[in-house]
Amino acid sequence: MTEPTANEQTPPLTRIAVVSAGVSDPSTTRMLADRLAQRVLDCLHTVELPATVAVVDLAPLAVDIARAGVSGLSSAGLRAATDTLAQADAIIAATPVYKAGVSGLFKSFLDILDNDLLIAKPVIVAATAGSPRHALVADEHMRPLFAFMRALTTPTSLSVSPDDWASPELGTRIDRAATEMAHLVRAKVADAIADDAWKGYQHQFAGDATRASRSAADIDFDSALMQVAAGGSFAPRPSSGK
Question: CA distances (Å), 168 to each of 41, 174, 175, in order?
């Protein structure tokens, strides 16, 4: 049997992660996230990119998230959720809106993630609310959060109130956001940015990002900070210039 050529080999599986902070059952937040995920899968299938979706529901992890925020220690379930995001090629993030902002559960989960976990990952931001008055939460609250995490949010965001569910415009917006994500994934924008610029970002040693430094060989033991940590005192190194 002849081996398949490079052009005939199956493309690597694209991993889409869904983060849903919905707490009701059924959850409109989860419903919106699922619609987005299915449309992204459809778009990737159109360009012959096999893909899979993994869902991180935050409601069952609420106690673990609260404990991690206080102690810094993650449960097995929370580590699994973090690994899902670290390994994802793209993320759909959806939250309900409470008091004109993202839910505390959603924000608390982001608070315990490593700052470099989502670098350059494409993200669709989506919010569900009880009133059109909250229409700007996705753009004014969620985009800045993911900008701080150095992720790439798609140009189209989703803010959905009860009247939107029956509107054809919602389907159009979902299609647009999914198409944008599919193009970012197909072009491997995240890999290109991280490959070329990873060393230029500030990182957490032994963090959860798939590219994180994890060995003692990555530590500069001669740095001023490490000298202080080892019990020495900080002394600026003499300048080599005259």
Answer: 20, 10, 11
CA–CA separation, 205 and 217 (whole Å): 11
Task: With beta carbons less than 8 A apart as the criterion, state whether 75 and 67 touch.
Answer: yes
60-87 pLDDT, tens digit per residue, is 999 999 999 999 999 999 999 999 999 9
Chain segment 125-140, per-residue pLDDT in tens:
999 999 888 889 999 9
How many other C-beta atoms lie within 10 A of the C-beta of residue 52?
Answer: 11
**Residues for the chain: how many in total?**
242
Closest CA to 11 of 179, 196, 188: 188
Give the pair of three-digit tokens for residue 203: 């990182």
Domains and CATH numbers, the chain: 14-198 (3.40.50.360)
| Sign of the dihedral through C-alpha 85, 86, 91, 94 | positive
